[in-house]
Fold:
Amino acid sequence: MELRAFFKKGISYEAYTAEFAKAVEEKRTSGPLQNEELTHYTELNFRRSSRIYKHTVLLPELLEAAQAIEKPLDVIVLTEFWCGDAAQNIPVIELLAEQSGKLNLRYLFRDENLELMDQYLTKGGRSIPKLIFMHADSGDEILNWGPRPAEAQRVVEELKAKEMPKAEFLEAVQRWYNADKTISLQRELVDLLVRLCEQQAV
Structure:
């Protein structure tokens, strides 16, 4: 299936958050695997993502970079409710899309679209969120991003090397996100938008 077909399957952020809220209310998560742990993370992530979406202020340089985009771009976002990195990063990316007016985001659940996900593995894993940027007119891919800012990825790899218990690992990653306050992501998005603009100019 080509990227354009996957994009058309996607849902809006409004629909995604509505389904997110419904999952929390019904004490479940997205995807085929359902258990108490994933339901717990889904509840936490809904609160976190709502807070980040409501309170994040985008950096002036990010807004400036967004305004430089000449033509609309379509973006596929692969995600799941239980994913902590998705809860931290997606609200900022959605805010950027809304304020730029040039990024058309559509959300897809990873486990319902493994044919696509498996083309964008991170070190062999199905890490999310994963963003695929495409020319809106042709549907051709320009570049992709994810699952987390480079600095967060470095922290994750260091923590994994320590082989700490999962709960401690997730708590440590959360502390990094709390301290960073979306700044690393926003700065990385500035560089990404510059690359997108360069590709549009080709």
Q: What stands out?
A: Strands lie at 73-79, 103-109, 130-135, 141-145. The first helix runs from residue 3 to 9.
